[in-house]
Amino acid sequence: MSLLELSNVTAGYGQTPVLFDISMKVEKGDLACLLGRNGVGKTTLLRSIIGLNALSKGSMVFDADDISKTPTYKRAKYGIAYIPQGREIIPYLSVLDNLKLGLAASGRKSKKVPDEIFEFFPMLKEHLSRQGGLLSGGQQQQLAIARGLMCNPKLMLLDEPTEGIQPSIVQEIEETLKRINKEKGITVLVVEQKIDFARQLAEKFFIMDKGAIVARGETKALTDSMVNQYLAV
C-alpha cells in the first residue's frame, strides 16, 4: 500500500523549475534510496515532499491525504520527518533540548524523551547536557536522526546522512536505519551518493537525472551499467 505518491510533480525555486513531471510511489515499510549525481534535483525533491518547495504542477498524497498545498509544520504533524543535508542541529542547545525540538515539531504533549531513542542511539544518553555543536560530525548526524525519530514519524526523509562521516559511524547509521525500519515499521527514503552504502542499506532504489526519475526497482536489480550511465562522475 502506498504511503507517499507523487503524480506529475513539477517544482523548483521561484520561476525556475528543478523537478519535471515526477511520478513515484513509496510503499509503507519501504527502505529506499534516491540516487543521482550532484545537481539533479534530489534535495529539491525531499524539500518538496516536506513542503519547503511549493509545487507548480502535479499532486502529492501522503497516507491517503492530499498534501499538495499543506504547510510544512502540518506535514510534520502528519508524520513526515526531514533530516536535511548538513544535519542542522542547533549547536548552542544541549543534546536534550535538540531532541525536545523533535517533540515540539510533532505537536505531542509529552516532554519526555522516550527510552527507545537511547536504545537506538545509546551515545546520546552520555551527552544529554552537552551542547550539540561540541559533538563530532557523526554524533551530530545521530542526534539529527534521533530528533526526527522523536516525532514518531511514518516517513523519514534523510538527505546524504553519511556525508563527511567516518566509516565506523556510517556503519552504525546503516544498522540503526535498518532497525528503525524493521522494528518500528517506519518508511525510510534516503538521498545518497555512495553506491556501496545504498546497496547495503536499501531494498529499493530510485535514480534521478535532470530533474526526473529515470530508473527504479529493487536494489538487487541496480546494475553496473545503470551506475555508469547515471551515477558515475
UniProtKB/TrEMBL annotation:
SMART domains: AAA. This is Urea ABC transporter, ATP-binding protein UrtE. Belongs to the ABC transporter superfamily. One of its GO terms (molecular function) is ATP binding. GO terms for biological process: L-amino acid transport. InterPro entries: AAA+_ATPase, ABC_transporter-like_ATP-bd, ABC_transptr_urea_ATP-bd_UrtE, BCAA_Transport_ATP-bd_LivF, P-loop_NTPase. It comes from the Bacteria. Residues 4-233 form the ABC transporter domain. Keywords: Amino-acid transport, ATP-binding, Nucleotide-binding, Transport.
